[in-house]
Amino acid sequence: MLGESDxxxxxxxxxxxxxxxxxxxxxxxxxxxxxLHNVLLVSDPGVVSCSWFEDVCRSLDGAGVSWTxxxxxxxxxxxxEVMRGAEIYEAEECSGIVAVGGGSPMDxxxxxxxxxxxxxxxxxxxxxxxxxxxxxxxxxxPTTAGSAADVSQFAIINDEMxxxxxxxxxxxxxxxxxxxxxxxxxxxxxxxxxxxxxxVLSHAVEAYVSNxxxxxxxxxxxxxxxxxxxxxxxxxxxPDDSGIRYGTMMASLHAGLAFSNASLGAVHAMAHAFGGYxxxxxxxxxxxxxxxxxxxxxxxxxxxxxxIGRIMQVPEGGGKEALISRLRAFRCSLGIAGTxxxxxxxxxxxxxxxxxxxxxxxxxxxxxxxxxxxxxTIYEAAF
Length: 383
Hints:
This protein is of the alpha/beta class. It contains 14 helices and nine strands. The chain has helices at residues 27-33, 45-48, 53-62, 79-91, 103-118, 190-209, 215-237, 242-262, 266-278, 282-297, 302-311, 319-333, 350-358, 372-381, and strands at residues 16-19, 38-42, 66-70, 96-101, 127-128, 138-142, 154-159, 164-169, 177-180.
């Protein structure tokens, strides 16, 4: 039976998506469907070097779609990279964007799109619903199972001058179509597989306990947790198994649909501050903070956290400590055994990181209201 809170108004936004082996080869067909004749192909050097990247290019060629490659995207996309991409987009008179890669190229592509239509610096869009004019058509070909930028209304961009990550949240950022092909995942290195998988888990957990969750986002969040807990260790052990990779990509999709609509919480707010300062992998930053945030939030959403515990096979009645222990054991089993101190964070950095996290829009949907001192305490617990 639905609770009273489940009767509240809720929205759900999702793009069209095609899921399955060979989906990436449909980029040209969909570019034609959108009436595109000249696109900016956004990627990064690692993706461009993969043999299957040529298949995406051939699909555009075969459909008669001209393309200009922009691969100057860092692991954490910089604001200057977005602005440079927008300059190339305009100079080449492009009419749409195809993004091929993980969260970084896709977030960069989203940024390029809105900069090109709004004629503003990318940093001016920070926050919720600050994009006045939607970008041009955007086709995403995700090549990792983690960020879910291909289905979300989020973009995370590095403000390199301030050493922080900004969150841009708007329906205008939702791609027009995602072509989810598990085959490119077979070329992912183990470290990236793990970091992306922990990002999926963090997305799903935060969406499930979010104060903006709904019965629809709950379905996706629960399924994502179940899938990633079972498929991620197997993907590490059997990286060449396309069936297992299919499971991690499906988990990423479910988590993306959940958090794009229920939003996130303190894990991501703090990870944006922490990861932006140290230029750290987003999934790794989430993994190092997840347990400490759960410990703080537990009292505000104990039933939901206990439900997550059941999905993760925590012994019945174990409560907060058992769930935290399970989360720690899970990440350690995947090779993430350190702390934020091991990742390069100094104790003296905590006050400034807390100020940055406090201003992050993801904090608005955390299940428990937080003060600046609370955030400092959580960072200290994760130290």
